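Comment thread on ticket #2218

A.B. wrote:
> Attaching the input chain for the structure job we discussed in standup.
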Amino acid sequence: MHALASSDYLWRTLLSDWDIPLDIPLNSSLASLPSNLLRLAAVKSLKLDNRWRNPRLEMRLAQRIISQNSSFVDGMRFLPGGRWLVTLQYEQTSRTHITLWSIADLNDHRSIFRVTVIGRVRILHAHHHHELEQITIGIAFARGPTESIRVYNVFLRGDSSTGHSLVFEAMPVELYPMGRIAGMKINGEIMVAVFAPLPSSSEHEGQIVCVNLVSRATAALECPEWSFAWGRLKVFRRCFALTTSRYTPQHTTAYISFYELPPGILDNPDRLSPSVPCWPEKLVIKSLLIASTSWSSDDPLVFESSDDVFTNNTACSFTMFGYPTRTERMDVQNLGIDILSVSFDGSNIECLLTVVACRSIPTAGEIRVSSSGKRAVWLNLDLDTHECTLMKFALGRRIGSESGSCVSLLMPSFSGLQFNPRDFHSFVFDEVSCKMAVGLPTGELYILHY
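C.D. wrote:
> Ran it. Output below, let me know if you need it in another format.
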């Protein structure tokens, strides 16, 4: 029995169809991981999923890691697994502090990296390179009408840092001719930034710029129309996706397109062709569309999705949550959330719809969807009672004892803590650990353990 339970083949086969979040390195294939790690991850994920589905789930611990101060946490990102947290603290003096926190140890939350920029950070993205033991943090920030991009590598040793470096910087004079930064994502050594045309746009404005952060090889993709600039960006290993939505009072359509990353961007830096330009020079080419599709609903829906992506060696996927905008005339008996699971195998896009009945729908913009789309949290404001509650969601599962999708209360309007859901200034959620981080208008930051 011991030999059977220790079989790499057994656990890789069992987990190949596992449909709840696993605590394994992002982008890792199951074939590269030992059976002992997979077994522990499977047991942990089942226990946590059973807790998360409990409608009477109680918080185990609330820890304050930033005390009351003059700045407030304007934005945050968990790295998958809940061991690392990146925060943005904005001061009224127009400075923003970017901090990486190590929060794996319950008794030792500490800052291991901190930089300050003049301006307000509009876009934050982070990527954990497990194999390189480093975390890449990318920011796009504005000071008045001018914008800049910086990318840092933070080098890790266990739960500590051994140093950091600024690996990429784009100055305002380099960025302004391309338009306004509308999105930016990093996956491995690849950064993709989307630029929306300015009102007084020139012929070169409105582009998708791809940069290899190691070789600095750069390509700018031109698209036939500019709707992409107001969509959501997802970056995978060899491609990227853009999703846009169009609304009418009676109808919603979501458009999903996958594009190929330019070959020169993916080339080994040691074998980079001399013909491939490096930043700030760039090769301007037509967009390399692989596949596109659309999905329509007869209801007017707001779509939200995770900033993270879920990928393996053969497929890329993400999830979009569609929900109605709450109005006083709404029939709460017939409310629901449309969950659109999108997967791409390199040539074809597949969209799978799941409809979940739910009276406590998200307040617009106040939902945090996990990278796999299997869990989410959101704020719900009741227009009748004006009470604000925090809700949790779990998608149906097949493994273990089969369970359907469920929505339940996570925090009531009066929580008994030093704060209530109505007091949230910012919040993030990690699906693997089911931790939350909550920033308050007082500048305080709490980590909530469930």
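A.B. wrote:
> Thanks. Noting for the ticket: Residues 35-53 form the longest helix (19 residues).
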